[in-house]
Amino acid sequence: MKVRRYKIRTRLENRNPITIALVSDFHNGNAAAVSAALDSCRPDLIAVAGDLFLGYQYQGGPDFFSGQENVLPLIRHCAKLAPTFLSLGNHEWVAPETELKTLENEGVVILDNRWIRDEERGLVIGGLSSAMLMDFRKYRLRYGADAPYPHEIRHTDRVFLRTKSDWLEDFSAQKGYRILLSHHPEYWCLREPMLRKRKIDLVLSGHAHGGQIRIFGQGLYSPGQGPFPKYTGGLFRGPYGCMIVSRGTTNTAAMVPRLFNPPEIAVIELAGHGAHHNNISQNIVSHNINQS
């Protein structure tokens, strides 16, 4: 498990940097490996940017977590380590509201098309839910909570690109350093919600799995972006802020292995005015940017 580090100098007034660990695309994976990586980072906050579950098969009912057996151990570890925030990705379609409530009872804050304020740190943290999840919910309302969704990933269909974004206007107008968890990096430049043109300081994403196979630093394919996708990992600048995309912590494409593309968590250090930076360890990838 690689730890990829970023430093952002912000307008925040804190003297000590705020460290955020970004976890994406866990997919009921290796909780021990991710937990160990998080322990090494000692984060102040943990952002889980969607796809905590593995959504190939709906497993509702009282034994739901028996089919997602690694989720609760990871979430419990995260919640004990630092305040933990979760936005909902497309694979969260497997989790009925009762199961999401279980996560909240473990101490996780679920940001389902909403935002909260962290007064102590001067942060405003929001979560934009996957448009695909919104469609799954509509299906359940129509056919019943236990209805098996015909799980066909049709990322190019308009219904799967139509997320609920009206609340972003209010979110973008809030005072403070605005952080948005948005599972889909393609929303950065999609006509709606076009996150790069909104006054959001930092967008945290995943979904692309680093492009699955990377050749000369280029991912080969990502759902929602197609072949040779642009937003598979790393940092991308916009007129008002930036987006960081994690390559994810596991692999769900069983027929296509991850090649030259190790799983990772991203660690973002938000430095305020007057903060002093320490040197970064040589075995950790580091990106340094300024953000006025």
Task: Characterise this structure.
With 292 residues, the chain is α/β, with parallel strands linked by helices. It has a single domain (2-290), classed as 4-Layer Sandwich (Purple Acid Phosphatase, chain A, domain 2), CATH 3.60.21. Helix content is 17%, strand content 26%. The chain has five helices and 17 strands. The chain has a seven-stranded mixed sheet. It has a six-stranded mixed sheet with strand order 6-7-8-9-15-14. The radius of gyration is 18 Å and the shape is globular.
Overall structural domain count: 1
Net shape: globular
CATH class assignment: Alpha Beta
**Helix/strand-derived class?**
alpha/beta
User: Mean pLDDT, rounded to whole units?
Assistant: 85
Strand tally is 17
Number of helices, where a helix is a run of at least 4 consecutive DSSP H or I residues: 5
CATH superfamily: Metallo-dependent phosphatases
How much of the polypeptide forms β-strand, as a percent range? 25-35%
| Largest sheet report | 7 strands, mixed
Architecture in CATH? Answer: 4-Layer Sandwich
Q: What is the CATH topology assignment?
A: Purple Acid Phosphatase, chain A, domain 2
Biggest β-sheet: strands ordered side by side in the sheet: 5-4-3-2-16-1-17
Please estimate the helix content. Answer: 10-25%
Q: Using only CA atoms, what is the Rg? A: 18 Å
Span between termini: 32 Å
Order of secondary-structure elements: EEHEHEHEEEHHEEEEEEEEEE
Stretches where pLDDT is under 50 for at least 5 consecutive residues are: 277-288
